[in-house]
Design goal:
3 helices; alpha/beta; four-stranded mixed β-sheet; 2 domains; single chain; 8 strands; globular
């Protein structure tokens, strides 16, 4: 049986990064467990240290894809990612001509840059077009 995957990001600001990735993926912030007004309330009820609430999570609104978890870490990102996400934004227009798909990917890159992403490079190789970006904390990812 296949396992559902959780992806975890180390982060300087988990709430901010979660909001960014929720916009990128069309996800929602994960609400606190039933009966709790906030994650902070749940965390305190569980007996964790008062300053230990340093995480956020986003979930697929349909409940089908992976949960993404963001946890605060003290050290900044220091090197290129060994793993990165590829976000297939053009999948929904896959029947369109290549030029239309490339324009769609480029416009999506502009939207993500307005949200805080930084463009690293654009590629057009062997019929594939993608843009490498970095999220607000420098984590590289590609959109295609």
């Amino acid at each position: 049986m296949a396992q559902l995957l959780q992806i975890t990001f180390d982060s300087a600001n988990p709430q901010k990064l979660a909001l960014f990735w929720a916009e990128v993926l069309g996800y929602h912030l994960q609400p606190p467990p039933h009966g709790f007004v906030s994650w902070e309330e749940w965390h305190q009820k569980e007996g964790h240290a008062q300053n230990a609430y340093d995480f956020a999570a986003i979930i697929d609104p349909k409940g089908l894809d992976s949960r993404i978890f963001f946890q605060r870490v003290p050290e900044p990102k220091a090197a290129k990612n060994r793993v990165h996400l590829d976000v297939n934004v053009s999948r929904r227009i896959s029947e369109q001509p290549e030029e239309v798909k490339q324009n769609f990917v480029a416009s999506e890159a502009e939207r993500l840059k307005e949200l805080g992403a930084r463009e690293i490079n654009r590629y057009n190789e062997n019929g594939d077009y993608w843009i490498t970006l970095a999220d607000p904390e420098g984590n590289e990812f590609c959109i295609q």
